[in-house]
Amino acid sequence: MGARIFRCAEVPGDDYPEEQSVGTKDRASNRAQDAKGRVKEAAGSVTGNRDLKNKGKTDQAKAGMKNSGEDLKDAAHKVKDAVTK
Description:
- The chain is mainly α.
- It has one domain (17-84).
- It contains 2 helices and no strands.
- The radius of gyration is 19 Å and the shape is elongated.
């Protein structure tokens, strides 16, 4: 009788540890990008630099889109878990 091999996400009682840690890092990175965008936008407003202000808004939008992608991945995992249990 051979040993059973589990992939990381299949370990009993361990709900997607790799994805959670990567997702957490991604969300932290997205928050940092959003914060940088807010700083750029504020600096652009104060100095009258429209390019810097627009780059800040772009950074914030990118961070928001990335967070939406993370939310979608989380929802997909929940649906998968509900179907497989």
